[in-house]
Design a protein that fits this description.
74% helix, 13 helices, single chain, mainly alpha, 352 residues, two-stranded antiparallel ribbon
């Protein structure tokens, strides 16, 4: 089996991304707009302003975590399509902690207030991990011991989570102060910000990716996981409990996505609301596919998707539909898939 070099993959993908940008430019020209002007607007709005850079970090944070969740499952040969639902489950559990343990104005600025807020954040993060893991437990058990496709079960769990959130924010957790539709009350305890709107969730997400990279470089678990994903029969022959590894992997995957939900609630929107996930779970699949077998590659992959999302906002200012983001994402995935296949084909052709 031929090994595809990193350099070959990078070159093929850069060509694919260039082709996608040319197609997008052609589409913009077809709408009667100047592609050069639109391109400059996207670049200056994204990289030339503090607001744009902050937006990139805020978009990257959930994408890193949902991407890491899907990537971990892929390493075991599993497709976790349910990161969206696990994200929402984690957000709901974290919101429950936040709404029940709000900040006390009488203690504002005191050490007691700091300790109380810190405890709330730790409890919320723990609850979000457990909720995300629990949300993936049923698909994990079905896949591990009954052979039920995790693709179908994790996907279906997304819809359950979505309607659960809507039931909560329009029912018992509805905001009775401002009357905002499909939104809970504001959560007073928040993740500390350190650069404008950029909060501590961003370095936490980067740390999670670094820990995954370290795990897959230095642990026996990563070896067993890779073997279970590439050759389950060989793993069983080697005495590895494939079912247990599948179950644990999907639980960890769901937990990571759940933490993403907590960070979005406590760091960005400060409440549970309808549409909170914003497609981050599904975009996490794209991030994981772009990263291939490298956990550290999740960072540039999430950055690329964050740029596309930010570009979508800018494009709306020149009357381009928001659905253009979906089209760009689809083109990007298709082009990179073709590029990867071409790189593998050309390598195997030379090897033979």
């Amino acid at each position: 089996m031929a090994v595809i070099s990193f350099r070959r993959i990078v070159i093929a993908r850069m060509i694919a991304i260039g082709i996608v940008f040319l197609l997008v430019a052609a589409g913009i020209y077809g709408l009667g707009l100047d592609p050069g002007m639109v391109g400059r607007l996207v670049v200056t709005s994204t990289f030339g302003t503090r607001f744009g850079l902050e937006n990139l970090a805020l978009y990257m944070t959930p994408l890193l975590l949902t991407g890491a969740a899907v990537w971990l499952a892929l390493r075991a040969g599993l497709w976790n399509i349910g990161a969206e639902g696990q994200f929402l489950a984690g957000a709901s559990a974290a919101a429950a902690i936040g709404l029940s343990g709000g900040a006390n104005p009488a203690l504002a600025g005191s050490p007691a207030a700091f300790m109380s807020s810190s405890l709330t954040l730790v409890l919320a993060m723990t609850a979000s991990f457990l909720a995300g893991a629990l949300w993936s437990a049923l698909p994990a058990a079905g896949r591990a011991w009954l052979g039920v496709s995790e693709i179908i079960t994790t996907l279906l769990m997304n819809f359950i989570a979505l309607y659960m959130v809507y039931a909560l924010v329009t029912g018992p957790w509805a905001d009775k102060v401002t009357g905002a539709q499909m939104s809970s009350a504001r959560i007073e305890v928040v993740l500390p910000a350190f650069a404008g709107a950029v909060h501590c969730g961003w370095p936490i997400a980067l740390l999670a990716v670094a820990m995954l990279a370290l795990l897959f470089r230095r642990s026996r678990f990563s070896y067993c996981l890779a073997l279970c994903g590439s050759n389950p029969e060989a793993a069983r022959y080697a005495g590895i409990d494939v079912g247990r590894h599948v179950f644990v992997t999907l639980l960890l995957s769901g937990g990571i996505a759940g933490i993403g939900g907590m960070i979005e609630v406590f760091g960005t929107v400060h409440r549970l609301q309808g549409g909170l996930a914003n497609g981050y779970g599904y975009l996490g699949i794209v991030v994981a596919l772009l990263a291939r077998k490298s956990a550290l590659a999740l960072v540039p992959a999430a950055l690329l998707m964050a740029i596309i999302l930010n570009a979508g906002i800018v494009l709306q200012t020149v009357q381009v539909s928001a659905s253009a983001v979906l089209a760009m994402t689809g083109l990007l995935v298709f082009a990179i898939a073709v590029a990867d296949d071409y790189a593998a084909w050309s390598r195997s052709g030379r090897a033979s």
